[in-house]
User: Fold this.
Amino acid sequence: MAKIKITLTKSPIGYNKKQRATAEALGLKKMHSSAIQEDTADIMGKVRAIAHLVTVEPYSEKADK
Assistant:
């Protein structure tokens, strides 16, 4: 399955608790931290909920090495 790289580019401070919890559930704790996740419907739903806070790009393990 395809993977995506999610990066927290904007601070969740000042947004509601649900959006902060969604960012943390994706593995994003600090500014400019990144998480590699599977490209599934539930992950994409979480990303859409906080789309204004994150950037998403495709991830290839070959490019990382």
Summary: The first strand starts at residue 3 and ends at 8. The mean pLDDT is 94. The two ends are 19 Å apart (CA to CA). Residues 18 and 43 are 15 Å apart (CA to CA).
